[in-house]
Records
---
Amino acid sequence: MTMEKPAETLISLRNISFSYKMRKGDRLQVFDNISLDVLYAEFIGIAGPSGCGKSTLLRIMSGLLKPDSGEVYFRGRPLNGPDPRISMVFQNPTLLPWYTVIKNVMLGLINEKGLSEKEKEERARTFLDMMGLIGFENAYPAELSGGMRQRVAIARALVSHPDLLLMDEPFSNLDQLTAITLRRELESLWLNQVLPISSIVLVSHDIEELVEISDKVIVLTARPSRVAGTVKIDLKRPRSRRSQEFYEYVDKIYTLLS
Ligand SMILES: Nc1ncnc2c1ncn2[C@@H]1O[C@H](COP(=O)(O)OP(=O)(O)O)[C@@H](O)[C@H]1O
Ligand SMILES: [Mg+2]
C-alpha cells in the first residue's frame, strides 16, 4: 500500500517495525509498529529510556537502516536509502583527523557535483563563520576542543542545505557550559531562520533541554518501543526555566517516561 503523505509532512514513519539480527539467529525487536510525523519547520525533541531505540530511530529516518516492515516517507515519497537532503550529527563528531577543518566541512558537499572547489570552500566558510570557527579553517581536528569539533560536525551537516537535521545527543559529551552555549547558539540560529534547514529532530536525555528548545517532544517507551506520548510545548520563546509552566512540561514528560 503506498499512500502519499500530506504536503505539510516533511518525514513520516508509518507502522515501522525494526529488529537487529543477533547471533544464533535471535532478533532484538526495537520497534513494533511505530508511527510518527515531523512537519515542515518543526523542532522535534525525542526522549526515551536508554536502549529504547532513539539512535536506531534516527538511523531509520536518515535512510541508513531499513525497517523490517512499514514505510518512511520523505517529502511525500518513500525513502529508500540515505538522502543528501537529510543530515545527521552524532554524539561523537566523526571528523577525518588527516583533513583540516575546512576540508572536513567540504565533505558535506561531496554529492554536489555542480560546485567547483572554490564554491565549496566558500560555502564551507559561511558555515564555519556561523558556527564561530573562523580562524580555524586550517586547523586539524586534534587541535580543537570537543565543543569545537562538534561545531565542525554541525557545519558539515548544514553545508549541504539539507531539509532535515537529525541530532543524536549532540551535546551530551561536552562539558556543561560548552553544551549550553552551543545549544543556545543553535536555538537562536534556528529561531532567526538563519539555518538552511526546515526541521530538526533532536534526541536528548536532558528533559529540560528538550522543553527549552522543542516545539513538540515525543516520548518513547522501553523496547519494543512505542510512542508513550507527544507533548506540544506551548511556551513563548526564549523560554525561562524559572517559570512554573516550564516545570509542568518537564513533569509531564517524566511522567510519560516512568
Ligand atoms: N548494531 C546493533 N546490533 C545489535 N543490537 C543493537 C545494535 N545497535 C543497537 N542495538 C541494540 O538495540 C537497542 C536500541 O539501541 P539504540 O537505538 O542505540 O538505543 P538508544 O539510542 O535509545 O539508547 C539496544 O538494546 C541496543 O543494545
Ligand atoms: Mg543512542
---
Amino acid sequence: MLDTLEAPPAFGQPIPLRGPCVSTLDLLANRRSTSAMLLSAPAPTAPELDQILTLAARAPDHGKLFPWRFIIIEGQAKVSFAERLEVIGQARPDCNKAVAALGKLKTPPLCVAVVSRVTEGKIPEWEQVLSSGAVCMNMLLAAAALGYGANWITDWYSYDPQALAMLGLGEGERVAGYLHIGTPIEPQLERARPDMAAIVSRLEAV
Ligand SMILES: Cc1cc2nc3c(=O)[nH]c(=O)nc-3n(C[C@H](O)[C@H](O)[C@H](O)COP(=O)(O)O)c2cc1C
C-alpha cells in the first residue's frame, strides 16, 4: 500500500487542479494484462486490496447510483467456489474446455468479481453497465500502479445461471468481470494494437 498517497479531500471540498502526470501516462502506455495462469502469490495485502477497491469505485457513474458491487473471492472460499464450478462445468457440452478454463480462477491468489447492478429509473441501463466497465478498468490500473498483475476475465461462469446463483447474485445483477490479481511470474509480451488511423475520424462541419 502506498501510504504516501494523499487522501482525497472530504465530501464537497475542492480537489486541487493538477498538471501533467508522467507516471500515469507511463502506466497507461505500458500496462498489459497478465495472463491469469502467470499470476502467483503474493496477492495484494488487505490494506492494498482496500485501496484498489476504493480507487476502482471512483469510476464515473451517471446519477451517483454506484451501479456495481464487489465480491472478494480468495483462500478456501475460492477453492470451494472453483470445486463447485467444476461440477457444473463437467455437465456442460463443452466440459473439457469449461473445466480447463477454471485454471484461470484457481491459479491466481486473489479474485474480485465486479457485479453490475442496474437500477431502474432515468439513467439508461447502457450507461450503468458502462460504468461497471470503467470500474474494472480502474481496478486493473490501480493493481498495476501498486506493482501487481491483473486480468479481467469473464469466461463461462459469468453467464451460467447456476454459477451466478452460487455467487449470490440477485435479480438484475450480472458479472462485469472476474478480476484476477497477483504477482506476475514473467513479463508479458506486447500485443497487437489498433491502427489508430483506422479508428479515428473527425466529424466534418456541414
Ligand atoms: C469484458 C471483458 C471480458 C474478457 N473476458 C475474457 C475471457 O473470458 N478470457 C480471456 O482470455 N480474456 C478475456 N478478456 C481479455 C483480457 O482481459 C485482456 O483484455 C486481454 O488479455 C489483453 O489485455 P491488455 O490489453 O490489458 O493486455 C476480456 C476482456 C474484457 C474487456
